[in-house]
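Minutes, methods subgroup
Present: GH (chair), OT, SY

1. OT presented the first of two proteins processed in the latest run. Sequence and structure tokens recorded below as shown on screen.
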Amino acid sequence: TGTTSTRAALKILLDGDIYHMDTILSERPDHHPFWRSAIAGQARTEDWHKILAGYKGGLDYPISFFYKEIYKAFPNSKVILTVRDSKRWYHSVKSSIRRLI
């Protein structure tokens, strides 16, 4: 859906790792309990600092669901809004992520 290439570009531009859906799926399964607590509305500012320590940025799910909380924890952060044609995005999701579900 474009997030893998965006992650690769941001890693170069920001000279560091970028939190991404792949981070949870394959790189950091130990983060699962944190995300369950975030979904339950129990993540505190210090929790965001701990889970995102060492990352220069983040994109994709689940991080995009919590942009308000993350911005509150990191008020000097920058936000990039990417816009895609909705039909092309849907086709991309249907032929990639949706196959995993």
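2. SY then presented the second protein from the same run.
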Amino acid sequence: PWDLYDSVQRAKPKGGPGATAAGLKLYVRRVFISDDADELLPRYLSFLRGVVDSDSLPLNVNREMLQHHASLRTIKKKLVRKALDAIKKMADDEAACSGDSSSGDDDKEKPTGDACKAFGTFYKEFGRALKLGVLEDDNNRGRLAKLLRFHTSKSPKELTSLTGYVGRMKDGQKSIYWIAGMSQQEVAHSPFAEKLVAEGYEVMYLTDVLDEYVMQQLTEFEDFKFVNIAKEDVDMSPEAEGEDKAAAAKAKKEAAKALKETFKPLTGWWKEQLGSKVAGVKLSTRLSSTPCVVVASKWGQSANMERILKASAFGDQSKAAMMRGQRTLELNPDHPLIVGLKDKVMSDKDDAAAKDTAALLYETALLESGFESDDPKGFTQRMYELIKGKLGVTAELPGSSKQEEPAAAAAAEEDAAEDAAADDTDKQEL
């Protein structure tokens, strides 16, 4: 129905303009009782239409008493189970048609024709209802999770299930990686996913508004934890096996410590330049071709969640700012720009070019990571100065700090002259 999700935001009118057909009609021993039996189905299954006929409900009670009857809870539980079984059958038929069935029953005749496309058509129309069910139905969350479908780095055109993702995981992979954004193109080209994809890991692309809320409820699937790769402390290294595990962990720790000491002058200096804008500056293991990124704290809001909350018409911006959490600037130690900036800082910490480069890199990383710029005017002015140097323009740009300095000095001299004249006048009067 075109207005299926309207009821999530506001209650539907019971009659008159805007009213829609009832979902289920309730009968008791073939006697019509009600055509508005909302209590028989949870909100996320409100798209179902049908008739419920019961022999266990009394006829000689009013509607208010009937709503609290114990049999209604049993009926609701059975209806939900039947509905999810029917949806699962469509999903199994689709998997059998594509050859991805995990049931192990090879003798069963494979479905053909419309049965192979039924679940795809259903999910296109009602996939968001299933996601709403993950948020609201704690008892059936595991069953609903198996029905969810997402695009991934290995399946950019066709939707895939979580079961399919787990079946394609690399040996030693400990987590299910995902990233959320406004579009598939945005998340596919995100710097957070570049190294994971290059090393053969599969990353889930979450582009629906509900997806990140769903992931807050789905902490794990088949003993694999979900990991948002846009947040800090993402462990992307496969787990070693046997006797090599301890040796590999020790070697990795020593190498990371040595690299950290090498870049300590740069990270400490950069943190001083940024001040309270970031919680810290550290080296990254998730980057390959990007010089730096800005990541959200582990328990804070991601850039995508910040955009969603800001777009909320009745959202409390003060609470959103409080829940935003701290950000961390992560540097790619192998990138030439970061290595060059480190050498420049080590030779002269007060170099103006190094400060401008650090500010420009941070603001670029902020935008590429999905956040809004803290100082759009300063960012654009630095970009204009960069373009000016590339074009070989020698004239000062309007509004630049260099052009404003003489004007500020002249204004200061004028103020000083006026103060001196006022002092002379006061002395003469005395």
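Chair's summary of item 2: Residues 15-21 have pLDDT under 50 and may be disordered.
Next meeting: continue with the remaining queue.
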